[in-house]
């Protein structure tokens, strides 16, 4: 069985909705999904540990955009993982990234690239969204070749669009397929 950690921070629920779409898709394919957050905000939240990363076969990682960068909670966590990096414990694990912003040009692509940096430093294999996912060409909201994204609106009231949901599902499917091939 493939074990996948879906790690996220969500301020207003958009990134959590994306994490759930990706998680549901992974579970549909038969993965053991471990949904994790950086801090416990609700009773059902499970906080990430470094052991979670060591034990997983693949990782999906997302936060809202913070001026084109990852949320501080995520950065703080990744800064504690030097011991994993020194031992090469995440090398060759497939990973993908996802993000949400308030506006169409609110920094999603920059954030997705920023989310990728610690994964690449750890030697993980970064998976994007290939253009055989037709929603990349049809979306009028979120979705990039760098990863799934969402445009929440200035009051964070936009629900995931059908295109954004399909892109999240495509990301989950691709992550599962690559992790399965590698295992």
Explain the overall architecture.
- With 183 residues, this protein is of the alpha/beta class.
- It has a single domain (3-182), classed as Flavodoxin domain (Rossmann fold, 3-Layer(aba) Sandwich).
- It is 40% helix and 18% strand.
- The protein contains seven helices and six strands; from the N terminus they run βαβαβααβαβαβα.
- The protein has helices at 14-28, 50-55, 72-78, 82-87, 108-121, 135-138, 162-182; strands spanning 3-8, 32-37, 58-64, 94-101, 125-126, 148-151.
- Strands 1, 2, 3, 4, 5 and 6 form a six-stranded parallel β-sheet that branches.
- β1, α1 (14-28) and β2 form a beta-alpha-beta unit.
- α1 crosses α7.
- The longest helix has 21 residues, at 162-182.
- The model has no long low-confidence stretch (mean pLDDT 96).
SSE inventory with pairings:
Layout: E1 3-8, H1 14-28, E2 32-37, H2 50-55, E3 58-64, H3 72-78, H4 82-87, E4 94-101, H5 108-121, E5 125-126, H6 135-138, E6 148-151, H7 162-182
Parallel strand pairs: 1-2, 1-3, 3-4, 4-5, 4-6
Compact summary:
The protein has 183 residues and is α/β, with parallel strands linked by helices.
CATH superfamily: Flavodoxin domain
User: What is the tally of helical segments?
Assistant: 7
Determine the oligomeric state from the structure: single chain
Q: Could you give a short account of the major beta sheet?
A: 6 strands, parallel
Number of strands: 6
Instruction: Report the top-level CATH class.
Output: Alpha Beta
Task: Flag low-confidence runs.
Answer: none
- Strand-residue fraction? 15-25%
Domains, number:
1
N/C terminus separation: 9 Å
Return the string of H and E elements.
Answer: EHEHEHHEHEHEH
Gyration radius over CA: 15 Å
Kindly report the CATH topology: Rossmann fold
Q: Which overall shape is indicated by the principal axes computed on the Cα atoms?
A: globular
Name the structural class.
alpha/beta
- CATH architectural category: 3-Layer(aba) Sandwich
Estimate percent helicity: 25-40%
Overall mean confidence score, pLDDT:
96
